[in-house]
Amino acid sequence: MGLTVTLPAKEQAELGSKFVTIACCGDSHTRGGYPQELQKALQRAESSTTWKVLDFGACGATASKTPRAYAKSPVFKQALAIQADVLTLLLGTNDAHKVFWSESDFVENMTNLVKQIQENGAARGRAPSIFLGVPPPLYHKGHFMASLLRQNVINRELPRIIPQLAEELGVGSFDAFSALGGPKLQMPNSMSPDGVHLNQVGRRLLAEKLAEQVLIHQGLLSPEEAPDSPMSCSSESTMEHSPPARRRRMTCNHSVTRSRAVRQTC
């Protein structure tokens, strides 16, 4: 993964297109998850722009101070170094572990992450636009991994906390929770058998939803053009044949960590 991804202004002008770099930060909802689909979604929707979507996910990562704190991960340092135009931060699923969860700790450390990103950008003269993500719902299916997490935290508390925190910090947000079934868990077809991670359908839905927010932010899509509610998708072909400007959805992949009683998966 190269760190030099931003083209010089002269080279961008010669290409005759806009160049946008996006750093996707988070846990295993990000690592090997939605970034690749986001690249495809953005290119389908706005091919006159050159998009560079980079995956800086870390399996088992948390915002909170745990052995897997994202702030201490090597990939976070890499994400800060590339000076991206847009940075997405999708954390919370692993924080909801029965051993880890503390609302005050989560809010404090998410705030610290955002401030670190902003301060790093200011020091380099290139502060990225930040989007905080609300994680996908937790679908309990009797799987061991899902049983390690607090479903009420993921399905009730995080959808309340994260948008409010984004507003207080003056940054953007994207709602994977609603896009992937919301509190009624209406999209089980978007989840893997463990009830925690997204499958291919879910990853594409998340990417489409996030692409919508990025396009609006970049002035390439008006809010009026964006759908008001999550698009249902029973198969991957549903999105493949829909008009590019209307294909929107989002998703993420997470992992769970255990220290002694906590096990890590990716």
TrEMBL record:
Q: Looking at the record, which segments are called Disordered? A: 221-266
Residue stretches making up the SGNH hydrolase-type esterase domain: 24-204
Q: Which residue stretches does the UniProt record annotate as biased composition, category Polar residues?
A: 252-266
- Name residues in a coiled coil: none
Q: Which Pfam families would you find in this protein's record?
A: Lipase_GDSL_2
Q: Which domain of life is it from?
A: Eukaryota
Supply the name of the protein: SGNH hydrolase-type esterase domain-containing protein
Q: From which organism does this entry originate?
A: Durusdinium trenchii
